[in-house]
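Pasting two entries for a bug report.
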Amino acid sequence: MAGMAPAKIRRLWQQDFARAISESAARGRLLEIEAALGSLGDEAWAALRQSVLGQIHRRDPHHGWPQALDRLREAHAYQYLVGRGCKEIDFVPATTATKTPDLRAALGGAQILCEVKVIKVSGTAPLSPAFCTKLATRLAEASAQLRSVPESGTAQLLVYIILVFAETPPDLIVGHTRQAQAFAATMRPPDVEIVFHVP
């Protein structure tokens, strides 16, 4: 599978999860997630694993397991919080009543609430109005989720956006990311910090 096109690897992932995670080229595509998973403590790993397993039955015939993969990507935000010096980092248990932030952490004497949003970007053209609308919607959703818990009034609020590029040449990814950051800055609530990550 060496040299396999990214689109073919993605189709392999989407069609056959078991085979996708056993093929060497596909494993290579997951190495960054694996590194992020290595930053998780035992309790955090157990919580994330349970969340991912809860998505496995939701296989889409055309897209495979995007929800499960997006849950795994939440480990990037955990790793970011570790690198920032946070302690007591936990995945917030999901509730059926309302959507809550994904992560909670402590930094100094302050609490941080973090919501992770994964946004897929495809193509080579500059970011489209449709993408900007999607980004604005995700930021609004994230802001509402961060404010859904009582401690949001005193906590630092963080939206961690993971941009997943598909069929975008590497030399365009930097420019597209900067465009997304500039647009997000115009939409950012004043009390919310936004961090972008490109795997």
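Entry 2 (this is the one that rendered wrong in the viewer):
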Amino acid sequence: MNRQFLVISGCFLLPSTLYFTSGIHKDGLVFLMLAVLVYSVYQSLHNCSFSARRSILIVTAFLFLFLLRNFVFLALVPAVFAWILADRTKWNALLTFIAVYLISGLLFLRSTLLTLLLIRLPSSSINRQIILTCRLLQRKYRLPLYNPIFGVL
């Protein structure tokens, strides 16, 4: 009974889900998809079989995470892959996670060579951050965006 109360209170009384998802926002759906993903992967590893139903749940959770918060998706793909690899192969979990994250980090940084879906991941991440910073500064300080004029130089 005591353990059941801890699980229920841990799921429903987290401050981040109570305060920041008071309306219908994407964060509640992201939390739901994370829970579905972790539960499905855990049950599949615990039962030693990836059934069609659980595989569909895992793919659907990944798809929704990609559509809602793509940075959460990018962080979860190596984590879930390392979790499954460490559990199936019985290798040292720490070394498996280090190797998977090192390889995925190198793939992320070298994605300009791969041109995965014609998106260069590091440069697009930096460009999105620059655009967001410019928009926030323009709203806060009412600064006009200037275009460089090379004729003046």
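Dev reply: Rendering is fixed now. As a check, the viewer should reflect this: Residues 26-46 form the longest helix (21 residues).
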